[in-house]
Design goal:
The chain has 256 residues and is α/β, with parallel strands linked by helices. The protein has two domains: 179 residues, Alpha/Beta hydrolase fold, catalytic domain (Rossmann fold); 59 residues, no CATH class. Helix content is 36%, strand content 18%. The chain is built from eleven helices and nine strands. The strands form two sheets. Strands 1-3-2-4-5-8-9 form a seven-stranded mixed beta sheet, sandwiched between helices. Strands 6-7 form a two-stranded antiparallel sheet. α2 packs across α3. The radius of gyration is 18 Å and the shape is globular. The mean pLDDT is 95.
Length: 256
Amino acid sequence: MALDLAFTETGSGPPLVILPGLFGSKRNWTSIARELAADHRVLTVDLRNHGESPWDPLHDYPSMAGDVAAFLASHAVSSATVLGHSMGGKVAMMLALTQPAAVDRLIVVDIAPAPSTANTRQVLQAMLDVPLQTLETRSQVKDAMAGAVPSRGVRDFLALNLTSSPEGLRWGINLESLDRNFASILGFPQLPAGAVFDKPTLFLGGGRSPYIRPEHHAEIRRLFPQAAIEMIPEAGHWVHAEAPQAFVEIVSRFLA
């Protein structure tokens, strides 16, 4: 059963749907959405078990693509440009390959149509291991993750998922479901025979990231015959945050 996804909307024009990655939410995309809203109706979505969207024990790509398809239908969007980062990029690919009529153009940010090998499992475990009941501030939480997550920028990003309640700090994402389904998150789903998305597609990666490699190019072009592949040399996995100006320039050129 599809979940009713939370979203923010800005701008007007042809619809552009943004799907954040693992541990991300629509709030991480506020400035990028504002830039792209000059020419588009930008709908930035929280995927299931993230942000303000509902939690569910199931967390796999067919289910998440179904959520997005239902979201488009419920907001009278017959088809849209869909931009997805990382896990959101796999959701966007799944939607395009199984329901191509729903997608006009596809933008996949720093992920390939293949199982992911980068070790994000230790990041999830670091979040699970934080003793939230004994901590009072976000700074304390970030310090508690420092051993397992040495990058201050990544710790700052993860801490955006903290929420405050009368009982204290809590994670605003469903870590238990993500942990249970982590193999599915890292993988890439089985596709229907002959599945191809033959519309304009952009794969945009970070030059310092391991997620799009030369050995992925043949599979990208098999599934997405119109795909262009561009890399931003100075960026890592969080391309839109690390090189926002270059990111917006390349995406805007593709959209134009």
